Amino acid sequence: MTTIASDARMAGAQRTYPPRAAVISWIFFDWAAQPYFTLITTFVFAPYFATSIAPDAATGQSLWGFAMAAAGLAIALLSPVLGAIADASGRRKPWIAAFGALLVVASCTLWIGKPGDPTIIPPLLTAVALASVGAEFATVFNNAMMPTLVPPERIGRLSGTGWATGYIGGIVSLIIVLGFFAANPETGRTLLGFTPLFGLDPATHQGDRAAGPLTGLWFIIFVTPMFLFTPDYPAKRPLHAALRQGLSELKQSLKSLPEQKSLAAFLLANMIYTDGLVSLFAFGGIYAAGTFGWHTIQIGTFGIILAIAGTFGAWLGGKLDDFLGPKRVIAGSLLILLLSVAAILLVDKDSVLFVKVAPPEPGAAMFSSAAERAYVILGCLIGAAGGPLQAASRTLLIRLAPKDRIAQYFGLFALTGKVTSFIGPLLIGVITAATASQKAGMAVLVVFFVAGFALLMRVREEQNSAVVPAKAGTHTA
To answer: Which phi and psi angles does 356 have, rounded to 5°?
Structure first.
């Protein structure tokens, strides 16, 4: 988005910044919003939808892909306009409140998703898409507050801290759902061996469905400190004037890109491989549910393992960024992702890389079969590569962008990360529907990572003197 440019100029002129409590309260927005992505779109509700509400896993993956594509298309069409408003108008909290309310209401609606009821599918997918729009745009306006909270040289550290906090919040929310709400329908027990709280019925998957209301309640509780303690700024100009100026600045940035070949190639590469990464995370749980018959507890445990791997990968990636440079870290991460996705496509419940293995046995210990263990290992590689990919991408942008417009290009960087976010889910949905094969649908991700890597090779890494290298490489670790 172009959400940062004008505020960065204002922040650069600031002599004082809000107290520490205001900054910490802002950071907790990431903690508040993350359960939507962890619980609903990845590890709990999406796999539950595919295996228990949709007629079959392939159809479920296809329908979910169409819903996410619709949400992504809406985000792509509206993001330049809303980004311009955020950049030029000044006010943030009213927009965060409005889109946050959409996220809360739509997430709570997911409680209606009873198993085996096909009539509930259209309203359920509509609610999922609306929740996605709410979460993404609330994040847009929250991000636009960053430059006024800390000095310019600390924006990267602030962003990285918020990202890490959100990661941990996702893990905590997942443990709560798996440990206290969602139970195995066969045993009636949660991952921690308890009966579900509040009398939630395992047979009707009330624990899985509770992920929706929990996401809404979680957001309300943890976003409140931001509204109470983080200062907003008065409107700088009327809405129509803010829209006109913001779009004008975006147009100027886009027109100048052809003159900066490395930067243009990088932004295009980021657009493509980010789409692939987001799609991979969104459909990984659904794919595992269809391939191995995993339910919420197995998929959630898998998610916790991946999150731990991702935390370690982000930390290590920041260290490698200092020594090797961000382009090498991005290239290495893409190669790991590419090889891992290709290997996953060669893992089935009774085979691993063309080698026949014993399939999972009913009632066996979690991840006891060779195929399941291989999938977990490959998933850990994906989790460990995803963090460095995104962190080093921000660092590379700092090195490539004109030093006098660094914040404006961060806004453009965010825009390219969202503008085609509907294509990956749409292609997965279309191919899965056409072939009735989850494996064929997931195979399209190979193209995204290959294309992103090829474009990255056209980027000439240059050090921008406006930023100290050590800070640039470590802010997201």
So the answer is: -70, 135
DSSP for 37-96 reads IIIIIIISHHHHIIIIISSSHHHHHHHHHHHHHHHHHHHHHHHHHHHHHHHHH---HHHH
In tens digits, the chain (477 residues) has pLDDT values of 434 444 444 444 455 888 899 999 999 998 999 999 889 988 889 888 988 899 888 888 889 988 988 888 887 777 667 766 766 666 788 889 999 999 999 999 999 999 988 899 999 999 999 999 999 888 878 877 776 787 766 665 676 677 778 878 888 998 999 889 988 877 888 878 888 888 898 888 999 999 999 999 999 999 999 999 999 876 666 767 767 776 776 677 777 778 788 888 998 999 899 888 888 877 777 788 777 888 777 888 888 888 888 777 777 776 787 778 789 989 999 999 999 989 988 888 777 887 888 777 776 777 878 888 888 899 899 988 887 787 778 778 777 876 655 545 666 776 677 667 778 888 888 888 888 887 888 888 889 999 999 999 999 876 443 333 333 333 332
Upper half-sphere CA count for residue 326 (Cβ side, 13 Å) = 31
User: Nearest to residue 1, comparing CAs of 98, 130, 88, 99?
Assistant: 88
Q: Rounded distance, CA 118 to CA 313, Å?
A: 40
Query: E strands of 161-308, at which residues?
Result: none
Task: List the one residue out of 278, 447, 293, 445 whose CA is nearest residue 375.
Answer: 293
Q: CA–CA separation, 80 vs 302, rounded Å?
A: 36
Q: Tokens 């990845």 map to which residue?
A: 42
Q: How far is CA 209 from CA 229, 342, 452, in A?
A: 33, 32, 36
Tokens, residue 212: 């929706």
Beta bridge partners of 352: 347, 355
Structure tokens at 22: 């205001």
Tell me whether strands 347-348 and 355-356 are parallel, antiparallel or unpaired. unpaired
Judge contact between 425 and 279, C-beta under 8 A.
Answer: yes
Residue partners of 373: CB distance under 8 A and separation at least 6: 367
Give the burial string for 363-385 (b: 16+ CB within 10 Å, else e): eeeebebbbbebbbebbbbbbbb
pTM summary value: 0.73
